[in-house]
Amino acid sequence: MTHRVLDVEMGSTEPGANVLLWEPKKAGYDNQLWTYEDEVFVNKHSNLVLYLPSVGDQVIRGTSLIQAKPINQTDGVDDDDPMERYKRSWGVDPQGRIFSWLDDNFCIAPGEGVSVVVEDCFFGDVDDMVWRFVPAQPVR
Known about the structure:
The protein is mainly beta. It has a single domain, classed as Trefoil (Acidic Fibroblast Growth Factor, subunit A) (Trefoil), CATH 2.80.10.50. It has one helix and ten strands. The chain is globular, with a radius of gyration of 14 Å.
């Protein structure tokens, strides 16, 4: 089990920035804080959401996750397109795995190095796909 957290690369506030696994910071850690509401993860620092890039409804194993604008702020993307909604929507199963509503066979997992990807929920090291949700505490 890793004790790393989801981190937006370089604290970026831009759509398209990579989401990584990183050691928890002692200060300046808002890019490591996420809220989960209505099946969407929102980064505290950027106010952008966790996003699964895909072509239509086709999920590719090993795809790296990024942050994107919330569905109601997509500027030109059809807000009524269900695929765009599902690319931003995540569920959490009873074991603590975070799965994509675009294709619920894919869960968030560590990738190579510090990348965060989607992998098949039922193959490989499934223990690496279990996440623990912890209320944010001030770090001293």
